[in-house]
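Posting for a labmate who doesn't have an account.
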Amino acid sequence: MTEYKNPALTVDVVIFCLREQKLQTLLIKRGLEPFEGKWAIPGGFVRYGEDIDDAALRELGEETGVHSVYLEQLYTFGAPDRDPRGHTVTVAYFALIPDENLPLQAGTDAAEAAWHTMDELPELAFDHQTIVEYAHERLRYKLEYTSAGFKLLPREFTLTELQTAYEIVLGEKLDKRNFRRRLLEANVVEKTGQYRSGGEGRPAMLYRYSAEADPEVKARRLYP
């Protein structure tokens, strides 16, 4: 059998959260070379015999302390010069999580973990800028035909909070009447019977994602 020199395999995770009315991503500051002191997305090498999905969840937990997230495989990046240590192929993921005062902790090879807004990202290590931008575009696209947007919200939410989440991710204003009409016609949300009071207006009805919804059909085209 011919011997081949194989590239190394890593996983990287772009994790998104709606915080302070902005779409933010979680970055770690590298504590080791290469790119020591630079910000990067969480990730690391896949262990021999380890499933890559398990590796992604493990690295995310080890480097940030974040667990139990919606995780989806994004794309494979394999340019031979993307890692100065040698030819390394990475399987990138994106994760979505609601803002619930998540406790963050930097792992053994990370000096710091922090949230950064998408419109004010620092210079990133490796090709992570490209990976983050690709993940953002994928998230925007998936809002159109899946239930991905609901993963950024708490279990119960108002229709205003849902529309705001879509507007933040898409970077554009949506017509309130059209958005709500399409949302209710699609039967992807259901009333909880509970209300949220606040401000000087009437209490707002709380909704939740419907267990009966088909995310590949009923969530399609919720916005013009």
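Reply:
Got it, the structure tokens are right above this. The mean pLDDT is 87.
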